[in-house]
Amino acid sequence: MNRFDTDIIIAGGGLAGATLALALSRVVPSLRVTVVEAYPLSTDALPEDYQPSYDARSTALAWGSRLIFEELGLWQRLSEHATPIRQIHVSDRGRFGATRLTAEEHGQAALGYVADNRWMGLSLMRELQGTQVQWRAPAEVLGMSSQAGGVSVAVKAGEDVVQVSAQCLVVADGGRSGLRESLGFQARHDNYGQNALITNVSTSDSHRFTAFERFTDAGPMALLPGGAPGCPGHQSALVWTLSDSALEALLGLDSEGRCQRLQDRFGWRLGRFTRMGEVSHYPLKLTTVAEPVRPGVALVGNAAHTLHPVAGQGFNLALRGLVTLVEQFQIGVEQGRPLGDLGVLGGYQRAHQQDWQQTVRFSDSLIRIFGQASAPLAAARDAGLMGLDLLPGAKRWFARRAMGVGGRKPVIRGHGVGTGTEPAHHE
């Protein structure tokens, strides 16, 4: 007889939580997994006539993330609405320094991809329908208490609150949830004093599958290629960093005025900006949790670390962390250990720590170095960007970071899931 109602409870059924559930069902199918999600499950799983709306949000997926989704059997479906990034152009506005990364240089089909968020969610739901993963939705996790060898999780659905016992609780409900704090985790928040504006834009010239990282005296911006996967189209996803006053001024403009303001800051590398879609915005901060595990509970994804979005590293870091956690659960099952034991969860923390520390430093340093307007620093940035083009070793390191294959290579034994498969031409 099972001692617990389920083995793993995942609080949050978004991209991170659903991916974790799918990975566990693929790699450790003996585990009983329950996902608690605040929103009702979608009933329109992968309609045949699916077309992303112009205002659909998207996620940057590194090459290493594609490898993970391939091993989970999901990439073929995801790629139907994922635009390849074949070039990355990094520049400093008003300066000569620039560097260009190309997939061809690294023997790859792409450096990364821009995937439609809703399609990713529907694809995950479709795959999970064929598994034993159980869902409680709409519902939410209110809290957790320890019990012998596991945890008791309070789950609220409607007006009813029930206690569900499990070996371990995984918190995957994002960086804005109060569950992390209510469980006693201490998060560090470093405010950038700026805001991220997210929208889609159209341009007169084709993006030609190029992603632009543009650093300006007012803050960085990124333009990621969008549209049909096989078409070098004219739509890009914009992440624009703005001060409070600049954001307020921009929101007060009409569509034409917003395009003109963007034109002034970005330049003419994509021709004229002809359309800007619906915008969303939020204040920017770097959030990290130094100790993301406690007996019986682990934080993953944005609940464990939230990065600046311009570098496009957030979800890719989260995905590598999910793979690492699945690896540790697999080892725990093989050794017959309670999955909420610190010997198991501590293995996840130690294995993932170097990756998240390096990724945080890489992302944060880009923002802080390029956010300084002093002339000596600007000249140093010029030299650094030009040096990346001239020094193959430095450029290769930068490219590996962008492709998500520069950190630890978690491989789930017996299944082949990993993030660190090297391109054939490397080394």
Automatic annotation (TrEMBL):
Keywords: FAD, Flavoprotein, Monooxygenase, Oxidoreductase. InterPro entries: FAD-bd, FAD/NAD-bd_sf, UbiH/COQ6, UbiH/COQ6_monooxygenase. SUPFAM superfamilies: FAD/NAD(P)-binding domain (SSF51905). Gene3D superfamilies: FAD/NAD(P)-binding domain. GO terms for molecular function: oxidoreductase activity. Pathway: Cofactor biosynthesis; ubiquinone biosynthesis. The keyword Heme does not apply. Residues 5-328 form the FAD-binding domain. Pfam families: FAD_binding_3. It comes from the Bacteria. Its cofactor is FAD. Its EC number is 1.14.13.-. Belongs to the UbiH/COQ6 family. This is 2-octaprenyl-6-methoxyphenyl hydroxylase. It comes from Marinobacter salinisoli. The gene is ubiH.
